[in-house]
Amino acid sequence: MQPKAKMAKKQILAIIPARGGSKGIPGKNIRTFAGKPLLVHSIEAALQCPLIHKTVVSTDDDAIAGISNAHGAEVIKRPAELAADASLVIDAIKYTVQQVEKAGEPVDIVILLEPTSPFRRMEDIEACLEILLEGRADSVATFTESHVSPNRLWRVSQDVVEPYLEGAIPWLPRQKQPVAYELTGQIYALTKEILFEKEDSISLLLGRTAAVITPGETALDIDTELDFTIAEQIMQHYREKTA
User: Fold this and answer.
1) CA angle 164, 181, 178 (to 5 degrees)
2) What is the widest separation between alpha-carbon atoms in the chain?
3) Radius of gyration of the chain (CA)
4) ∠111-121-138 over CA atoms, to 5°?
């Protein structure tokens, strides 16, 4: 592995996408979580990473912009068409990169930190970036082991109930079932080159891909009130554990 000082010559941009219109939890991105607005946990993670050169919040919302600036992030306002319910996050990322480069700042690598994943670890951020800095992949994301084996999924259609995968044997013990992994949404990172290579791509895993496996307890994505309640309980558990 190359020394971090040498690897960090490439310009790394952290983007935190935080639009204002949240249907599941109104004002979710700025709702207080563990004593600070939810998105601030992602801002602080980016600012504390020595490999990241610039931290930008992409938003359409003035309140989010104000909180982001107050906590050390730069803000790039995105146009309304990139902040609708059906808008794709990759389009907001491309727009943000273009605005940064228009201001005269180069970008080599982009790391996406969703504000709804407040439990990401610094070691996982650095592991994702080091994979790209070492040229081992064009894009990387965090995954965690799925609680359910793909062989235990079912297809239910009217009166037909059958294994979702042909040939699967759901009745085998858990230890004999194949293991699957799911995206956590905590971290996506990719080179700028691969980001703009295919104009019509909607995926954030492009070119040569890699995975960083994270613990299940850190992989919660806050999307509903129940998620928020569970996340607060997890944070309380962590605080008691480290007190």
Assistant:
1) 55
2) 61
3) 19
4) 30
The CA distance from 94 to 197, in Å, is 11
CA gap 44, 123 in Å, rounded = 14
* Beta-sheet pairing, 160-163 with 154-157: antiparallel
Model confidence pLDDT, tens digit, residues 138-180: 999 999 999 999 999 999 988 889 999 999 999 999 899 999 9
242: tokens are: 């480290």
- What distance in Å separates the CA atoms of residue 204 and residue 92, rounded to the nearest whole number? 12
The beta strands (E) that lie in 2-53 are given as 12-17, 32-33, 36-37
What does the block give as tokens for 111?
Answer: 């790391």
Q: What is the pTM of this model?
A: 0.89
Distance CA 136, CA 240 (A): 38
Domains, the chain, ordered by start: 4-144+181-242 (3.90.550.10)
